[in-house]
Amino acid sequence: MKKRIQKAETLLEALPFIKNFYGKTVVIKYGGSAMSSDQLKEGFAQDIVMMKYTGINPVVVHGGGPQIGKTLNALGIPSQFVDGQRVTNKDVIDVVEMVLGGKVNKEIVSLINQHGGNAVGISGKDGDLIHAKKHKRVKHSPETDRPEIIDMGLVGEITKINPRILEVLDQNEFIPVIAPIGKGVNGETLNINADFVAASIASALHAEKLVLMTDTEGVQGKNGTLIPELTRKEANKLVKSGVIRDGMLPKVTCCLDSLKSGVPKTHIIDGRIKHALLLELFTEEGIGTQIVE
């Protein structure tokens, strides 16, 4: 009987959060290890369905870098990176669109639907969702002591989000699953960082939360310990001091951009933990790092 009562108490602990988020939109960037383990994939799909049935409107934006790399290797197409970002030529973008918009996207949709959801897979090209331009990467050249523009190929930078298709899906109780591919000014396909897509969509939808799933426990301080909560001001200080750097820097930048656009709360959580989303949303302690205004 004690175990049954504990189960009831666990459900009651979630009640205030369910009430608070009912009818609200939460944008989730799904990627990393959470996409590579069958157990974690199942847990993620269950979390999304649970969110939907408790009245939350989840919007999923997914990555797929390892899957793209694996396919490129199989096809004998070399991969080139600049500061961790994939240089994308015509051959590469064809594979990116095939893997992200096809294989990965449909796997996620299928898994959510198997667990009782009603997911629909789209890319940023569908419904005129993501407008983008070619990303110009500028790097300081020590040899010439002047900025050097690096051609990243068909890598995109978001210029506009048209959320109409997402609003239509929401009105009809569908769960959008979005591949981070956009349309360029001349109609070309552009490969866009999934974190930035998630942040831009959260801003356009006036979401209640932006959640970025990562392969770390969250933002860490100088001593390497997790920082559970940061304000915008505190996060900026850690960026300027170099404590927040490398792969964590763009994620924190996404959170800060979303806060600036009116998203009340942003989160960086450990996708290696099963049911990470439910633990973040429906428990008092939460997990990872919360960044707020």
Shape: globular
Say which CATH homologous superfamily is assigned: Acetylglutamate kinase-like
CATH topology: Carbamate kinase
- Kindly state the number of beta strands: 14
Strand portion, in percent? 25-35%
The largest sheet, given as strand count, sense and whether it forms a barrel, is:
8 strands, mixed
Helix count from the secondary structure assignment:
9
Helix content: 40-55%
Mean pLDDT: 92
The CATH architecture designation is: 3-Layer(aba) Sandwich
The chain-level structural class is: alpha/beta
Low-confidence stretches: none
* Strand order in the largest sheet: 5-8-2-1-11-13-14-12
SSE series: HEHEHEEHEEEHEEEHEEHHEHE
Q: What is the CA–CA distance across the termini?
A: 44 Å
Rg, Å, rounded: 19 Å
Number of domains: 1
What does this structure look like?
By secondary structure, the chain is of the alpha/beta class. Helix content is 41%, strand content 27%. The protein contains nine helices and 14 strands. It has an eight-stranded mixed β-sheet, with helices on both faces. A two-stranded antiparallel ribbon has the order 3-4. The chain has a two-stranded antiparallel sheet with strand order 6-7. Helix 6 runs parallel beside helix 8 (248-260). The mean pLDDT is 92.
Tell me the layout of helices and strands:
Layout: H1 2-21, E1 25-30, H2 38-53, E2 57-62, H3 65-75, E3 81-82, E4 85-86, H4 90-114, E5 119-123, E6 130-141, E7 146-161, H5 164-171, E8 175-179, E9 181-183, E10 189-191, H6 194-204, E11 209-214, E12 229-231, H7 232-240, H8 248-260, E13 265-270, H9 276-282, E14 289-292
Parallel strand pairs: 1-2, 1-11, 2-8, 5-8, 11-13, 12-14
Antiparallel strand pairs: 3-4, 6-7, 9-10, 13-14
Helix pairs in contact: 2-4, 3-4, 6-8
